[in-house]
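ERR on first pass: missing label on line 2. Operator R.T. fixed the label and resubmitted. Corrected input:
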Amino acid sequence: MIETAVTIILLLLLGAVTIGIVRVRGLFAAVVLLGIYSLLMATLFIVLDAVDVAMTEAAVGAGVSTVFFLGALSLTDTVEASAKRPQIMPVVVALVTAGALLWGLSDLPEFGSPNQPIHSQGADYLARSIPETGIANVVSAVLASYRSFDTLGETTVVFTAGIGILALLRRRRGEGKS
Amino acid sequence: MIAAALLAVLVAMALVVVRALRGPTTFDRLLAANSIGNLAIVVLALFGFLTERPEFLDLGLTYALLNYVGIFAVLKFFRHGSLGAEAEADKP
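pass 2 clean. output:
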């Protein structure tokens, strides 16, 4: 009961902050508001009992993203270029994406329902993992063995992102000296 | 009791969000962001006690550290105009 109330209040605040992000003109203020959005989102994730996701949201959304945005602002400019005329295409893309997401949402199982696939499938990993993989830790077995290609892909993405950021920073520093 | 405290903290959070959205200067928004970070820690702690999982307090400590890093980066940006190392070198 109280959890529902907290969820609704946080969602309302999130909506208000989103409208604020769209309406605000200064890019620096937008970065600050994005940080606020991430903090509210992390709190909402905690109320929804997804503590690990909340941790990631707070670390990436409110922490590192703010630093990256500020780095981008220091490399470019803090004033937004004003659009010449209203653009219709981004609105269409946003509406179509929102419609597709809402359509997909109708197919999800009910929140907290015991009939979710997560409860009916995969529970036999506990019995299967040691004879099949020989790894004592079940989480490690799922991550590194059953989903090894998924994990390899994730590692590749993170590695590529790191290389890209290093290349950007390195070139900038060289230009400053010469 | 804890539920009432939780609702009170959420009301405070709403007021701070109003300040962040209306704030005439960027520093108002910055201070609001910092306050929301602190209020999020309090919500986290209260919610942990409400659902009888006081180990959420550890997460609150991590939040405090993350909040510190974010605000530190923003203030450094204001002080030097960039986050790079060159600005550090010609500091008075």
